[in-house]
Amino acid sequence: MPIYEYKCTKCGKTFDFFARKVAEAAEKCPECGAPNPRKQFSTFSTGEGGVSSEGSSCVTGTCPTGTCPL
Q1: pTM over the 0.85 mark
Q2: pLDDT tens, position by position, for the chain (70 residues)?
Q3: In the chain, how many domains are there?
Q4: Exposed/middle/buried for 12, CB within 10 Å: 0-12, 13-18, 19+?
Q5: Distance (Å, rounded) from C-alpha 5 to C-alpha 16?
Q6: Which H or E element spans position 15?
Q7: Does 25 lie in the same domain as 11?
């Protein structure tokens, strides 16, 4: 199940939404009940670590130095 991060446009609360389907979206804020919260950009984890030999994180899967194990 995908986990999406949302932010309420009314109260500003950020929250996670556990979707049962990829196309499913949060309909309202769990804090204030306002409709249509905005989906936020967030990182994801593959469980592989994602750290280069130089110690920098390679979150996007591209490495500027070419030393990342991803």
Answers
A1: no
A2: 688 999 999 999 999 999 888 889 999 999 999 999 999 987 666 655 544 444 444 555 556 666 655 5
A3: 2
A4: exposed
A5: 5
A6: strand 14-18
A7: yes
Phi, psi of 6 (to 5 degrees): -125, 160
Cβ contacts of 8 within 8 Å, gap of 6 or more? 14, 15, 29, 31, 32, 34, 37, 38
CB atoms within 10 A of CB 14: 14
Tokens encoding 60: 């996007």
List the domain range (segments joined by +) for residue 55. 44-70
CA-only gyration radius of the chain, Å:
16
Tokens of 29: 């804020």
Q: How far is CA 21 from the centre of its chain?
A: 16
What is the sign, positive or negative, of the torsion defined by CA atoms of 51, 6, 17, 4? negative
